[in-house]
Amino acid sequence: MKKSLKRLSTVLMSICLIVLAVCPAFAQVSETAVSCQEDLAALERDIPVITVNGFGASIYKGLSTPSEEDDIQIWGPQSEVIVQAVALYGPQLAVWLATENYDKAADALCKALVPVFEEIACDENGVPNPDTGIKTVNTVEARDAYGFENRYSFTYDWRLDMHTISAQLDEYVKAIMEVTGSDKVAITAMSMGNCVFTTYLYEEYYSNPDYNTDEGHIDAGMFIAGAMNGVPACGETFSGNISVDSTSLMRFLSEKMIGETVLQAVYYALESMYAVGVLEPVMNYANMLTDVLIDKLIDEGMLKTLATVPGFYAMMAPDEYEACCELMFATEENRAKFAGLIEKNDYYHDNVQANNVAIIQKMLDDGINVGIFAEYGYTMAPVTPENDRLSDTVITTAEESFGATCSEVDGTLGEDYVQAVECPCGLNHVSADLQIDASTCAFPDITWFGKYMNHTDSRDLLKNLVDLIMYGDEQVTIATYTEYPQFLTNTGTELIPLTEDNAVQPQPFEQLTLVSRITAFIKQIISVITALVGTFK
Ligand SMILES: [Zn+2]
After folding, report:
1. Which of 308, 344, 378, 491 could form a disulfide with 393 if both were Cys (CB 3.0 to 4.6 A apart)?
2. How confident is the model at residue 219, as a pLDDT?
3. Domain encompassing residue 31
4. What is the 405 CA–ligand 1 centroid distance (Å)?
5. Rounded to the nearest whole angstrom, what is the distance from the C-alpha of residue 438 to the centroid of ligand 1?
């Protein structure tokens, strides 16, 4: 009797296992989505949320003296420094270019650029001048309420190597836990902050033998518009893969300038030049110049300024980093001179970036709530080849999302497109506007996309989604809530589900230019007149 019961239960268990294996939908994202309102109202926001900010905090010099009066901002570059450089070297540069004396032109360009950027430079070991740094003080205080809206914000000197910033983040996390008395934190990261956050996870969690998974302090993590898989506008330009073409430039400018009273007029003037092909020779000339000037620019310009900054190297995809190193440190001499810098960059790429996916997988396996949020709907900066990639103006959507298949920025994957990977969840991972197939993402069921989310927009629109993911009792997926399916669109005031009804079909840029619009308008008038003539005949 006992034996047959045992056999019966074994059979039942086997059936369950087979069902789970054959229909993995039951195992993962099986529940039908419900409204989040009830859960949102019931959320206990009992753990502090810390946000690791992105690139670009202002850098000052004069910090080694106690007086603030001698502090001067050296990043972002000050306009008077740029104006001065242009006034000093601009005329020389123009003469050398006009006389096709490119060697001298490169000299003049370096002389103009170096003063603008040299003060933020690091030494051969990637260490900034100790007289320089940020002045932001990261707040450490108890708060009445937690949650994304009341998040603690961690700002850092973005020039530093990721290991050093990660150690600073560790100190900050400990300070917040101390002051709040909380034994757990939730961490969200924006943009470059994701390089810092993944390094922190690698060092304090993933490769830390002392981290106790059951009692560990990392309760949840969210990767927002992340730079952890590379930023082509950084990685490709640093690897010399620079290219401008008139269509990309105009598409980019149209997003920035249309709607701005004065700029719009400038834009249309440029667009007419574009339409008649005047811009093309200018672009070709710019590309030619890049090619002939780049070698000199590296040694005399880049390696005295921006290319000494570890922070930039962290924002490169693996292949971009490799190409960049080949270009920057081409000679044995440079490799030896910058060995300390290279070692720091290698550490990040070989350990942290190479394990990004494994780190997140371990978090999920350990029951740590995770969310990934990627943004799209915009053209990237028109400085690299393949500028038709989908982006949030700064970082490409494919990189932010750990591998989504994306259409061109003004195209679609096609009417008949079928998702590339059949996901165990059984759901369709193709966006209603046919621009994104999320089935190729490393984590398709916990990756959300926000259309018309600009990289520099405030992320406050995400607060409910972030809180639901961070504080949920169970891992929230794209199938959990009706308000938060995989694809969302920004109306300007809120994020709503992207549906077939509100999905604007993208149009190729060429069809949107003024000339083509005028042509279309004239055609329309002709057809109206023809129709009228027909009526009165
Ligand atoms: Zn799925």
Report:
1. 378
2. 97
3. 4-56+136-230+354-497
4. 14
5. 8
